[in-house]
Amino acid sequence: MELHPPTPIRTLREFLTHIGVVTLGILIALGLESLADAHHRRALAAEAVDGFRHELSDNRAQVQEVLARMPKLREQILTQIAALTTAAPPGGAQPIKYPGITFNLMTTASWDTAIATQALNDIPYARAKRYAEAYGVLSLFVEEERVGFRTWQDLRIFGDDAARLTAEQRGALSEQLRRYENFTHVIDTIGKGALESLDRALQ
Questions:
Q1: Alpha-carbon dihedral of residues 109, 111, 114, 120, nearest 10 degrees?
Q2: 143 vs 22, 103, 105, 186, CA distance in Å?
Q3: What does the alpha-carbon distance between residue 75 and residue 27 come to, in Å, rounded to a whole number?
């Protein structure tokens, strides 16, 4: 490649032309960079929205699954409470049938990534708000599931045989079971709210 030394600038017109060419080149470069950056941000936002829709759809199915288990769980709890009011047969055992547990972790990877990459800045406010509400209610749902799990763990301290429990212990177990039943009603309430928020977000 042949290199030529710069031509000396002799007039004001040549100087202004040179400055104009350099300025125009810089503006074009900045414009192209800005366009590339805007395209990249739009691509990130589109990818985030696609991730939200898949993630929220999966989470919605899990919420429905949890809510579907609540009636049977309540039935198990009430059956065991009723059994505790019945005296054990003399010298016999009275097995405690503990109710089951439900605990589904909801995924938020797409939401966390969108926050980290600032993709939310390029999603229309009304749409981003719907996604934020859906993830917020899901967070409450998961937190209530944790509360239920801790309550369920506390049940196990009473052992497996109600015949060995004192009247006071039976009362304490019944109270704990009622707390666990209350958890199922709270899950129903939050779960229905979560489904409504999820439906709005997935419109």
A1: 170
A2: 60, 10, 10, 11
A3: 72
